[in-house]
């Protein structure tokens, strides 16, 4: 009994002798960090390619081919399909970009879809649908242009941006349309 009383006394003393409210003296200031870039760092690039039987009706873009920036598992990738243009502004065509997935209804009553998957090292764009994609018209498979935007994980939540709105994303990233690199994906 005496040992048990001693144990409880020591335990009570140990648990009440320190509190998390005790703050020690402040240490010396650390060295200044390196200067950061102003604004949000996002990566934007275009790819162009053909969906063929040889590439299993898919295109894959590896980020290391387009940028030296690190892409993290927490980053978010959005892909937009160039669906046409709407006149000109300042002598340049005004492109129409539609967010993926995009569904198209084809002759014969079926549908096909441009869709994508991504990892922190590549984006994989593919055709899917309830039709045999090998029978699709070249309009759906040849010379397709996609814009890939890699956004920091906190982009949408911190900036309250509608990431489905292409113009809002490009504006927030301060992307100059004329400076977006385009690469033809080899088959």
TrEMBL record:
It comes from the Bacteria. Residues 19-38 are annotated as: Disordered. Residues 1-19 form the signal peptide. PROSITE patterns: PROKAR_LIPOPROTEIN. Keywords: Signal. The keyword Cell division does not apply. Residues 26-35 have a biased composition (Pro residues). This is Collagen-like protein.
């Amino acid at each position: 009994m005496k040992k048990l009383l001693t144990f409880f006394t020591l335990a009570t003393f140990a648990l009440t002798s320190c509190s998390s409210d005790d703050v020690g003296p402040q240490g010396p200031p650390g060295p200044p960090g390196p200067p950061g870039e102003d604004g949000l760092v996002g990566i934007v690039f275009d790819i162009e390619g053909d969906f063929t039987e040889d590439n299993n009706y898919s295109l894959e873009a590896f980020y290391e081919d387009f940028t030296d920036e690190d892409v993290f598992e927490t980053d978010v990738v959005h892909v937009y399909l160039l669906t046409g243009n709407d006149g000109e502004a300042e002598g340049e065509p005004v492109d129409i970009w539609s967010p993926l997935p995009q569904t198209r209804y084809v002759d014969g009553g079926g549908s096909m879809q441009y869709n994508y998957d991504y990892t922190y090292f590549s984006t994989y764009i593919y055709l899917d649908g309830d039709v045999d994609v090998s029978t699709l018209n070249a309009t759906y498979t040849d010379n397709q242009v996609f814009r890939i935007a890699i956004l920091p994980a906190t982009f949408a939540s911190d900036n309250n941006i509608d990431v489905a709105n292409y113009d809002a994303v490009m504006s927030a990233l301060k992307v100059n349309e004329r400076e977006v690199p385009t690469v033809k994906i080899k088959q």
